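Final report, Chapter 2: Outcomes

The project's central promise was a pipeline that accepts a single protein chain and returns its three-dimensional structure in a standardized token representation, suitable for archiving and comparison. That pipeline is now operational. To close this chapter, we reproduce one record exactly as it appears in the project archive, with the input sequence first and the structure output second.
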Amino acid sequence: MAPKKPLAVIKIELEAGNAAMVDLGKALGPHGVATMEVKRRYDADTARHAGEIIPAIVSVYDDRSWDLRTTTPPTAFLIKQVIRRDGAARPGHQSVATITARDLEAIARRKLPDLNTTNIQAAIRQIEGTARSMGVRVTR
């Protein structure tokens, strides 16, 4: 049996445990994937993170089969959860909140599997850069 050929790799960001069919249909419909099956699997895989935005990668193959892999929430989303507001309208000119080093470390530990490093200090620096670009001050 010949290996499956990948036709498309689709990246989607949906609400955990409650994926919107409209968004799934827009992303997966053109590829002929059974969106209801993807929704059920996504909702089951992400149910424990309800209320968060969980990205997923759907690989679609030539026989219309598919694989689903979820990742950690976006860094900006996790920072917004900690500061309980949106980032600055003019980052670098405005500061909207302050985040502690402990909060940065907690976010970095959660994001570590999806970052391009295995070093926790490097991961913290990446998270810190995202926070600064959102207009969030970091206290040590």
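Archive annotation: The chain has two domains: 6-70, 75-139.
This record, like all others produced under the grant, will remain available to the consortium after the project formally closes.
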